[in-house]
């Protein structure tokens, strides 16, 4: 946290300025999604009662309102439907430009058909429509959290996609 | 009961742009212009206030802003006082709520005012705060802050499926800048040429600088009251709020409802619902103010509103159907592209232009305009909000 102009925040963590989710179980009930990501799995919730799949994961089923849900795996490979390389207005934390955004097809058999993702590890000008991409899980900055009288460091991960290298 | 039909009777819009002002100052500017628009109305007559703003809590560190704005405007609302936030549609959300308040009898004279102060002391924060405007933990955490990249994908998909061209995108920007050129409140007061538009700085290909609305500070205000009170307060032609709709059937990009990104079925649904409860059809719309946050959005919107066939939005805009004398003159005050887009103010600025059009006092007047339409999208094109106004009430 920058303290320029606001020295009282020296050494403080401001979650309200954090661009990443609070993934610790103290702050959400879908922490299993992040635990699964750490294991390299891209998952979401399915209702045990009606089999409906929701994405992003929930704590209740959006169809029947059951709270008996289970985590299922989603495809970790997809295909680029469309993409753009953002040149201007790239937010802090996603620099340098270009920031590559893609609309990804996860396949007709996936309960989640398409999603928006950043494309990592991809030189500018190299991505093409119909390129194959795969899930990538990476570390994001840990944050401090007060637990009782202690301050713990909460490790975090997040996900995106990257091109599958062609042989 | 019929004399409780809601009418819009006055409007005021602050100067839009990079403003040397606090958000509270901007609300005062807009409200002064609104009261100046209707000399018979005094602040003490207003018993309801709706404040539309999305980022005040973030950019100005001010949550619970409605009582503060009421006090600074010298209002003492005794029927209703609240803030609304649906990002880009906050203003039109407030207008629809005001209609319901007036028609239910819960309030008599409601001011709907909206505004934002988006430009910050350091530029990074303006862009960074946009990471809170869609789903922070999901789409925004992928770097989707300011929306040009998302609408660039819409443009590419529309080009792929319907053959839309960059020249057709540019036609929207050129037309809307022509309308905004003489608008005293507009942020972008210039005319564009096709060559200049096509060769402008790339933002997120295929979108360039003039395909995108600017980041804007500003505020706007309107007064909504019952037909009975409107007749007492205003000597101008009455403008009725005939109907509207708000459709929100998804939020996360992964749940996009269309076959592809050039297909906006949720807007088509919002249009159909608004047409039905306003008792009109697309052919009845004389003037429209629709959400041109990007040139491509206006092209898709004219299709989903039924002003032209699906997929023909490009040729429709390029053939001048959005200009004065065209099928539906659109964004006749310059729209978001020229005026700019202070989220909470935008729907109210649109209402102000439709009010002027239907009262015959617009700068670019559509001859004998009787039915006007305003529209916002918000989030990652997730929610659509429509308001339809008319010189006559629904029969």
Question: What would you note in describing this structure?
Answer:
With 167 residues, chain A is mainly β. Chain A contains one helix and eight strands. In chain A, a hairpin with a 5-residue loop joins β1 and β2. Chain A is flat, with a radius of gyration of 19 Å. The mean pLDDT of chain A is 96. Chain B has two domains: 139 residues, Thiolase/Chalcone synthase (Peroxisomal Thiolase, Chain A, domain 1, 3-Layer(aba) Sandwich); 219 residues, Peroxisomal Thiolase, Chain A, domain 1. Helix content of chain B is 36%, strand content 17%. In chain B, the strands form three sheets. Chain B has a five-stranded mixed beta sheet, sandwiched between helices. Chain B has a four-stranded mixed beta sheet with strand order 8-11-10-9, with helices on both faces. The longest helix of chain B is centred in the C-terminal third of the chain and has 16 residues. The chains are: A mainly beta (167), B alpha/beta (395).
What is the terminal-to-terminal distance of chain B?
Answer: 13 Å
**What portion of residues of chain A belong to β-strands?**
35-45%
Q: Which sequence of strands runs across the widest sheet of chain B?
A: 1-7-4-2-3
Q: What structural class do the secondary elements of chain B suggest?
A: alpha/beta
Highest CATH level, the class of the largest domain in chain B: Alpha Beta
Envelope shape of chain B: globular
The largest interface is:
A-B, 32 and 40 residues
Largest sheet of chain B: 5 strands, mixed
- Classify the helix fraction of chain B into a percent range: 25-40%
CATH superfamily of the largest domain in chain B: Thiolase/Chalcone synthase
Strand content of chain B: 15-25%
């Amino acid at each position: 946290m920058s303290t320029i102009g606001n020295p009282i925040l020296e050494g403080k963590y401001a979650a309200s300025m954090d661009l990443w989710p609070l993934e610790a179980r103290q702050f959400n009930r879908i922490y299993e999604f992040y635990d699964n990501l750490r294991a390299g799995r891209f998952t979401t919730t399915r209702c045990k009662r009606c089999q409906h799949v929701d994405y992003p994961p929930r704590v209740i089923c959006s169809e029947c309102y059951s709270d008996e849900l289970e985590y299922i795996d989603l495809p970790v490979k997809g295909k680029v439907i469309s993409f753009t390389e953002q040149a201007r207005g790239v937010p802090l934390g996603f620099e340098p430009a270009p920031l590559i955004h893609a609309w990804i097809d996860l396949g007709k058999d996936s309960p989640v058909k398409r999603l928006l993702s950043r494309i990592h590890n991809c030189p500018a000008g190299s991505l093409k429509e119909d390129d194959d991409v795969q899930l990538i899980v990476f570390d994001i900055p840990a944050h401090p959290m007060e637990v009782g009288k202690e301050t713990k460091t909460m490790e975090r991960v997040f996900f995106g996609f990257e091109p599958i290298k062609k042989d | 009961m019929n004399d409780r039909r809601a009418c819009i009777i006055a409007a005021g819009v602050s100067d839009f742009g990079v403003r040397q002002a606090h958000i509270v100052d901007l609300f005062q500017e807009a409200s002064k212009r609104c009261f100046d628009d209707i000399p018979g109305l005094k602040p003490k007559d207003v018993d309801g206030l709706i404040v539309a703003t999305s980022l005040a809590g973030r950019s100005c560190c001010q949550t619970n802003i409605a009582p503060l704005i009421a006090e600074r405007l010298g209002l003492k609302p005794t029927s209703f006082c609240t803030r609304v936030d649906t990002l880009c549609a906050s203003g039109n959300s407030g207008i629809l709520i005001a209609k319901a308040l007036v028609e239910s009898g819960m309030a008599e004279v409601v001011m709907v005012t909206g505004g934002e102060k988006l430009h910050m002391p350091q530029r990074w924060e303006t862009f960074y705060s946009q990471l809170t405007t869609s789903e922070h933990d999901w789409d925004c955490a992928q770097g989707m802050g300011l929306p040009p990249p998302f609408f660039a994908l819409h443009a590419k998909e529309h080009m792929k499926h319907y053959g839309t061209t960059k020249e057709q995108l540019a036609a929207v920007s050129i037309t809307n800048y022509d309308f905004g050129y003489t608008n005293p409140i507009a942020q972008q007061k210039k005319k564009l040429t096709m060559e200049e538009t096509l060769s402008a700085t790339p933002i997120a290909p295929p979108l360039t600088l003039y395909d995108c609305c600017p980041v804007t500070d500003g505020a706007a205000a309107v007064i909504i009251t019952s037909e009975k009170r409107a007749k007492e307060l205003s000597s101008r032609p009455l403008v009725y709020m005939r109907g509207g709709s708000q459709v929100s059937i998804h939020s996360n990009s992964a749940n996009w409802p269309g076959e592809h990104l050039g297909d906006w079925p949720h807007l088509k649904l919002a249009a159909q619902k608004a047409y039905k409860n306003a008792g009109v059809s697309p052919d009845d719309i004389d003037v429209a103010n629709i959400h041109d946050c990007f040139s491509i959005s206006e092209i898709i919107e004219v299709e989903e509103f039924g002003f032209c066939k699906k997929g023909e939005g490009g040729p429709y805009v390029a053939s001048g159907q959005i200009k004065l004398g065209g099928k539906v003159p659109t964004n006749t005050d310059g729209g978001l592209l020229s005026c700019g887009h202070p989220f909470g103010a935008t729907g109210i600025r649109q209402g102000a232009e439709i009010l002027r059009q239907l009262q015959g006092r617009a700068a670019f007047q559509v001859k004998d305009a009787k039915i006007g339409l305003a529209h916002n999208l918000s989030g990652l094109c997730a929610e659509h909000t429509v308001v339809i106004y008319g010189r006559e009430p629904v029969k």
